[in-house]
Amino acid sequence: MSLQIQSWENTLLVRAQEALQSHIPDRYSVYSDAHAVDTAYAHCNRITRHHSKTFFMASGLLPYEKRQATRALYAFCRVTDDIVDDVAPIEYRQARLNEWRQIVMSPTPPQDNPVALAWADAQCRYGIPRGYAEQLIDGVARDLDQNRYETFEDLASYSYGVASTVGLMAMHIIGFESNEAIPYAVRLGVALQMTNILRDVAEDWQAGRLYLPLDELAEFNLTEADIDAGCVDERWQAFVRYQIDRTVKLYDESWTGIQMLNRDGRVAIAAAADLYRAILSDIERHNCDVFTRRAHVKTLGKVRRLPGIWWRANRKTQ
Fold first, then answer.
1. Cβ atoms 169, 253 nearer than 8 A
2. Is there a contact between 111 and 31 (Cβ–Cβ < 8 Å)?
3. Could you point out which of 43, 96, 175, 253 has its C-alpha 20 to 30 Å from the C-alpha of 235?
């Protein structure tokens, strides 16, 4: 089944293809001290466990080496995000981000920086094009000077930078059939980021950011004053359900791409997608109130979903 490409995806797919053709780090450029590398990966495991129970659980379904690499990827993204989200002046954060970019793009990462070292090893081991990491850093950097998005296309562009790039890098770790999987990974990344956005409206607002399409807010007769007031009325509920419906469709359409992944990693990615998608259901169950509570899925609920996720991810290859 061929994927019908939406107009907002065209530019994103060009960016994905450009990054795909970028430099792949040389395996021999990474330090060969096995103990230092193992220690670095252990550090990334701790970061992942602390910051994302969902990602930690999903990545735990991978074989050991791929699990280590995906957690190094998570730690790289986490450090990048934390630099930009710091409360320090913008100039300081920009300088730190530039320094971090130089560190992670270096052919010889410093041994005293465990995240950079583990990430460098993972990139080399799995042939991850550096262009995707560059695009992620550029995407996260947008938070330094942009805090509003006029249209969904604008927001999708942002989501590509901070989320689709992660999926495209993870895809190289997992392994995939062909480049036909790329559009599905791009779409899944947008779905995951839109889920984050809907869950974190209140938190982002407090940080001075509004990651919702302004033109669509206006269509539902909503203003920034309504966001500030935490207004959960029929207008807001209709707006959120509209966003959820589109995001759920993106999840549905990305499933074909998940089944193009290598079998030993398919369930992990399916679990990450399904557990994040469940956050949308939690938002709906609570009348779209994302202002007084943070939508989530309890650990027991996650565990109960795993058998069904496994069956769905593997049924075509059984």
1. no
2. yes
3. 253
